Amino acid sequence: MTELPDRVVGDARTSDFGWNLLTDLTDIGNRMAGSTGERRGAERVVEAFEAAGLRNAGLDEFEIPGWWRGESSLSVSGAVERRHENSHEVIALPGTPSGEVTAPLIDVGDGTDEEFAAAEDDLDGAVAMASSRTPESHDRWIHRMEKYVAAAERGAVGFVFRNHIEGALPPTGEIGYHNRPGPIPAVGVSKEVGDRLARLAEPAEHGGLAGSDGSGAGDRPTVSLDVDCRNEPTTSVNAVAEVGPDTEEAVYLTAHVDAHDVSDGANDNGAGSALVAEVGRLLAAVEGDLDTRVRLVTFGSEEIGLWGAYHAAETTPREEIACVVNLDGACSSRNLRVGTNGFDGMRSTFEAVADAFDAPLATGETISPHGDQWAFVQEGIPAVMASTTSDQSGRGWGHTHADTLDKLDSRDLGEVATLVTAAVYRFATGEVGATHRSRESIRDAIDEGYVEELKTGGRWPYDE
């Protein structure tokens, strides 16, 4: 079994190359898909590729549906009068259209199918509010886009997405995906604002505020949403480079460089981009050992629908991709998690690496459409997503103003770089251990809930 040389392991755990790149990416600020900041981030990654001695470093441009944020506000009227217009309280969700609506507020809890069904009679002409939480009893994570579409399909005229993490500020995140712009205005609010709105929205007999005559009539608050934004076509870029022999087939190591505009995007996903460059640098030190070319890519526009990953998958012959290791949110700790999408050979390689380093490893087998690896998985190409686990609930600081460098630790980055380099080294030294599958076998193995999500978001890739 091919082992990563000790000198490379030592380098991985003492180098500041990846951390310096991560610091520079977070200092750029707004790296929203299609923005000047996203391109600056990609250019900085290319600089790192070149400094690491990788070849064919450059940018690959493609078209996307762009979105630019304006000002947003949420006002409450009724027994309580409040106006929220600061970005730590309320922000527009990417993919939303501009618009102004005033309507009663209906809280649909966590936004499960059962909760939407129970509130269906009240949602027509209302503003629906759903939490970012997915109940622990639920068999899969419920994406915000599903909650948004469920509200619109039931006649809601606006949507409020409230964070369930205290102190984590309002969440952002795409709600249009490949159906941009969405049909109704949508905003995210902090847990603190959302909790107040939920309390006010309760019927009087359940603790909500009664009408001015004490009868309970008119006890639901009226909210006004005012969203200003712009939806226009633009371009995005992937940053690419290569290391190893000039073989036709390649092992892909990927991440996404874009981040939501309200955030520095430290863990999601500046860390992933920094790790791609760092692993590339470490592999360059043992380039002569590699039997298979390694292609390094930091994708643009992941956060708004995986556009960079789709571009790469659609412009590369399937047989030229041996396997894909995608990094996303991989620096919240040093505890690696690998979503294998059912590719057992790739899971076995990561398990062997974890055993060799006596490192913890969590794995999941579910075929998931969340993350850039999906653009390859849907085609039957072996692809996994590597992240890290932490004690934080849900997404943690991701998709908020608070996804900043101070939440991360350079030692965690070094440990993850060690493990990922060891795995990619094995994949590229004749031990890929991953077999392509047919598109039909992938299609038939996707959970019914994810089938619905993909169709709802305009991303179902299979003919009926």
UniProtKB/TrEMBL annotation:
Any one Gene Ontology cellular component term annotated for this protein: extracellular region
Compartments in which it is found: Endoplasmic reticulum; Golgi apparatus; Lysosome; Secreted
Signal peptide: none
Keyword DNA-binding in annotation: no
UniProt-recorded Gene Ontology molecular function terms: carboxypeptidase activity; metal ion binding; metallodipeptidase activity
InterPro entries: CPQ, PA_dom_sf, PA_domain, Peptidase_M28
Coarse class of the protein's main subcellular location: endoplasmic reticulum
Superkingdom of origin: Archaea
GO biological process: proteolysis
Residues of the PA domain: 101-197
Pfam families in UniProt: PA, Peptidase_M28
Domain Peptidase M28 stretches: 238-423
Record's keyword terms, sorted: Carboxypeptidase, Endoplasmic reticulum, Glycoprotein, Golgi apparatus, Hydrolase, Lysosome, Metal-binding, Metalloprotease, Protease, Secreted, Signal, Zinc, Zymogen
Presence of the UniProt keyword Glycoprotein in the record: yes
Subunit structure: Homodimer. The monomeric form is inactive while the homodimer is active.
Name of this protein: Carboxypeptidase Q
Source organism of the structure: Halorubrum coriense DSM 10284
